[in-house]
Each structure stands twice: as structure tokens, then as C-alpha cells.
Design goal:
The chain is of the alpha+beta class. It has 2 domains: 65 residues, no CATH class; 152 residues, 3-Layer(aba) Sandwich (Aminopeptidase). Helices cover 32% and strands 33% of the residues. It has 7 helices and 10 strands. The chain has a 10-stranded mixed β-sheet, sandwiched between helices. Strand 2, helix 2 and strand 3 form a beta-alpha-beta unit. It is globular, with a radius of gyration of 19 Å. The protein binds coenzyme A. The site of coenzyme A (COA) has 21 residues, from strand 8, helix 6, strand 9 and helix 7.
């Protein structure tokens, strides 16, 4: 059997997913688009050694042979995820958008839970229940609220929070900002609120970051249109696979 090195792939535990889904979850990072058959088989044995029973992996869509190898290992294709990016430029923060003062967390949790109620990679994975997936988004926004390095912008309509966006500098050297979660209350969607929140996120990073990135599913037409309208372009597309390790 060919020797597998850490450079070809790594298998890491995902604590957040493990806690929510109640099974030991891990992520595979593959760095070699010419992975041999033996090396790809090593992914499963590596996961087993770590006691991991559920794996997720994201592969650049053009790495077709790795995708086929994963399918041979019983990885199941879920969807295509898009990495988006834009260069930060000077802009004004819209008047109806304010920096969140962390005073109405339940409202943000409710918006997140209802906005991400379908069509994410978690919803397409049969090992996870809808209740668990709903918990992912509730905990995700709660963790972002607790993270003091995360700036959250909220949109107000008659003193009611109608949407939010989270942004964080994730690489101080490369001056890269990242949008974590971004959602508008269903009752207020399609009224320009998402665009205002994106403008606010961009304007907050002027002189602090050079690029702002985000990720969304290719089937999320509303998000894609909103990002593209704000100047984001697709940097990379990824095929996402899940696998139960048996
Ligand atoms: C994505 C989201 C935040 C957009 O917020 P929004 O307030 O509805 O967006 P806007 O009203 O500012 O719309 C921006 C552009 O996208 C278009 N758009 C928005 N929703 C659309 C839809 N469902 N179908 C077609 N176009 C849509 C708008 O028409 C507008 O383009 P236009 O000015 O050329 O007409 C919102 O749909 C949402 O919360 N979705 C669920 C959570 C989510 O997917 N978040 C993003 C994850 S990364």
C-alpha cells in the first residue's frame, strides 16, 4: 500500500457538529487532486482510527477524479457550494442599519432558525434530523453573538430587527473579512434589506480589509443574486460530500 502523508489529506474532528448531531463528526481536507486509490482508501481508515463515524468533505468541482474516488468510498454528493469574494471599497452604511449592541439575541436566533429552514447541505443529509439542523443555525448565531471579534449589523424597521449580517476579520495579514451568517426575516425579504446589510458589512471593513468573502449554496438563488448585485464574484465552487463511516 502506498504511504499516505499528511500533505495529501487530513481528517479533523468537528466539535460543533459532533455536539449537535450526537455522532462523532469529522472533516476531510484533501490537498492533492491526484490522490491515488490507496491514499483515498486511507481517508476511511484514518477516520476509523480517530473514532469518527460521519465525514464531510469539500472538493473543488474541477477535481473530477477525486470526486469519483470519494463516491467509490460511499461518499454521497450533497450539493455544490460557492465561495464568493469582493474587493472592499469605500461606501456608506445605510441609515436603517446599525451595529448590533447584543440586546435582543432571541430575535436574531429566531430569524436564523426560520431563514435556514431548508435547502442547506445539512437538510440533504439523511443522517441528520430537521430538529438537529435547526439547532445548527440557532447555535451558530448564538456563538457568533458571543464572539467579540464578530461585528453584527442589524436592519431596523419601526424599531423591529428585520435582518442581520455577521462579519469578522479572519486573516489580519491578508486583510480578509468573512461573512458568517446573513439573513432577513421571511416576512421582509425581497424589499432591499439584504442589500443594505451587505453594504453595511462592506463599509465597516473599509481600510481594515482588502477582500470580503462569503459562502452560499449554488441552489440559493436569492443569496446569489443579492451577493452579485453587491459586487461579489464566484471565486471557487466546491462539491460537498457526506459519508457514514462503517
Ligand atoms: C439572501 C437574503 C438575505 C436576501 O435578502 P433580501 O432582503 O430578500 O434581498 P434584497 O431584497 O436586498 O434583494 C437583492 C437582490 O436579489 C434579488 N432577490 C432576492 N430574493 C430573491 C428571490 N427569492 N428570487 C429572485 N431574486 C431575488 C432581488 O430582486 C434583488 O435584486 P434586484 O434589485 O435586481 O431586483 C434572504 O433571501 C434570506 O434571508 N435568505 C435566507 C437566508 C440565506 O440564504 N442567507 C444567505 C446565506 S449565505
Amino acid at each position: 500500500m502506498a504511504e499516505t502523508t499528511q500533505e495529501d489529506f487530513t481528517v479533523e474532528l468537528l466539535s460543533f457538529d459532533t455536539e449537535i448531531f450526537g455522532i462523532k463528526c469529522g472533516i476531510v481536507k484533501i490537498n492533492n487532486k491526484l490522490l491515488s486509490k490507496d491514499q483515498s482508501a486511507g481517508i476511511i481508515s484514518n477516520a476509523k482510527e480517530k473514532g469518527i463515524s460521519h465525514l464531510v468533505v469539500k472538493i473543488p468541482t474541477e477535481w473530477v477524479s477525486v470526486c469519483s474516488q470519494l463516491e467509490n468510498l460511499n461518499f454521497r454528493f450533497k450539493l455544490c457550494s460557492l465561495e464568493l469574494e469582493k474587493f472592499v471599497s469605500e461606501s456608506d452604511c445605510p441609515k436603517s442599519v446599525e451595529l448590533y449592541e447584543r440586546q435582543n439575541d432571541q430575535r436574531l436566533v429566531d430569524i436564523a432558525e426560520k431563514s435556514f429552514a431548508s435547502s442547506t447541505r445539512f437538510h440533504f443529509e439523511e443522517s441528520f434530523t430537521r430538529k438537529q439542523v435547526s439547532e445548527v443555525y440557532k447555535r451558530w448565531i448564538s456563538n457568533l453573538i458571543c464572539d467579540r471579534d464578530v461585528r453584527i449589523y442589524v436592519h431596523f424597521e419601526k424599531e423591529v430587527i428585520t435582518g442581520f449580517i455577521t462579519v469578522k476579520i479572519i486573516d489580519a495579514v491578508l486583510k480578509t473579512g468573512h461573512i458568517g451568517l446573513f439573513a432577513v426575516d421571511k416576512a421582509y425579504q425581497g424589499k432591499g434589506i439584504g442589500s443594505k446589510l451587505l453594504s453595511a458589512a462592506g463599509s465597516s471593513l473599509f481600510n481594515k480589509a482588502v477582500v470580503l468573502n462569503a459562502a452560499t449554496e449554488c441552489i440559493n438563488y436569492a443569496a446569489l443574486k443579492t451577493y452579485q448585485k453587491d459586487g461579489f464574484y464566484i471565486k471557487q465552487s466546491w462539491n460537498v460530500f457526506h459519508c457514514n463511516v462503517v
